[in-house]
């Protein structure tokens, strides 16, 4: 519709088609021009269709709300990492802040997924059954700190295994990024991680433990 | 945006409204991280892992986690491209299906009772599961609800599962091909999953023996079970899983077919009578497995076959059936068509009917507008004057309505020139309905509506967050006090921690949230009808 109330330009409302054919007779009052955006909540002209009610409606409604709640509790609901506080607190050690090492809470069938999606996890002996998150030794590849590491890991004997596996673990630790103190290094961390798995030649695969914990390596 | 030449970027064909709705759904069900990755893939098309991480500014680990969840739930698929690059692609329309989960579950309940209901629910909540896993979970859940001492037998759950598979409501997922030969060389970066058509509903021979177990009752139910108590991996891993690697998922198409059948039957019942609708229902049931979900017609059925398949209680003579069939075939709505005479007359059911659209008109513009719309739809093309005459609506009102519908694109204007120079005074201007575009437009509005409903509901909940948390805490305290046998007076005291105006506020909140949820469900029904219609029509073109 080319007609505009306002008559800008030469002549008033010159149209390319015959108005009468469309039904606007000469002299008919046209609706007023729109000068502002339509109101946010215009009054409802017609009554809306009634909402589903009755037994079926109620049941489906309850079901919907239940599902919503249920899905939030499932391990598929990934919560963003809790922002780390400035200072380490003693209570942190006793709080289960989330899945270990950014790994997944549930157990996908890795045979069905691309290999690149596996997240390497430093394997703990008793894994998730323990509530206590052990203090993870800082990442290092230097010998001096390795010794300190050895001391630290020996400290927490009850959560670790035999010294044999200690060595294997430290080997792994060298290659992995375990984060806990400086959490702002997380970004930096992940890049290292990425490079690690990119160049992963499979040497470590299966060599970590003889236990039957097949979900250990991610 | 990263200008990575190696990643094949397909332009997204989703509208903003659909993307917004997907975003809300993903966020509600899986959290922000999954939402970020999912929406990114929907917008940009197929991408590899590194590019996703870079473009979204998310850590690689987070992206991996999100992708695992999305793939598990059939919302994202992957493909190995050349040079071993794996690319991930989102299935936007599948995300939108999450709106319909309650309806799928409820439908199963009506067909296969509580056991069936829980089977489908577990499959939807977990994306995919092995049969043994489903049976165990469902048996445990059902046992929880039974009286003390009673348990649910695995065999019963298995039977229901088999029935669901037989009627195609659940189907097998494509699986990792078994390679007998030891393939030399490195394993591929990602498996290529395959499924044989004939295996899709094949239930593995399992002898699942056992009964459901009750959860160890913990009094602090409000706090939920602390992670340590859940023996996640230890018990399951000890026994070998008999159907390892065979995963099942809900077959959404089959549910859609069921919904469609229901809609047809009720439309026929509304228009004609109970008997006609029963006949149509019988015809549909006979065609259940043989008709693909998006076929515009069923396979032809002979009236003899129909007669034999009528439900046992229905005693109508063969001639009566034939009369009904003729009536149905003659109906201008064309639900049923005659397609031959063998076997006493062959009949098909036309899935495609624009009846669906007509129902929705009154909601938007009022019943008079709907009348006009129906008229134009039926007559295909009408002039202004004709509309007024046929609809018997005064000219002014008719004009008003026509223009309203025109501005909303339900109706369009077509020019038919009488003379080669297309002079306006010598041209016909006809109103016409382009059903397909009207349907699309309506669908778009529906997506927007639901997005608004969800946002409003989230807003309402957020506004009252503090109060909701307080009320939950109080409930938890009361529950634990009741368990330890507190007195009535003490319980009263705790309850009074929530003041009367606060109670009022909670009541109002609950009412509003219920209304918003119910509206979502209702709009999704419309979405289903429109999508089905569009899909069918496109197949025909």
Automatic annotation (TrEMBL), chain A:
Record's subunit section: Component of the RNA polymerase III (Pol III) complex.
One Pfam family hit: RNA_pol_3_Rpc31
Family classification: Belongs to the eukaryotic RPC7 RNA polymerase subunit family.
GO biological process, one term: transcription by RNA polymerase III
Biased composition (Basic and acidic residues): 139-160
Main location: nucleus
Protein name per its UniProtKB record: DNA-directed RNA polymerase III subunit
GO cellular component: RNA polymerase III complex
Functional note: DNA-dependent RNA polymerase catalyzes the transcription of DNA into RNA using the four ribonucleoside triphosphates as substrates. Specific peripheric component of RNA polymerase III which synthesizes small RNAs, such as 5S rRNA and tRNAs.
UniProt region (Disordered), positions on chain: 132-218
Ranges in a coiled coil: none
Annotated keywords: DNA-directed RNA polymerase, Nucleus, Transcription
Subcellular location: Nucleus
Compositionally biased residues, Acidic residues: 161-193, 201-218
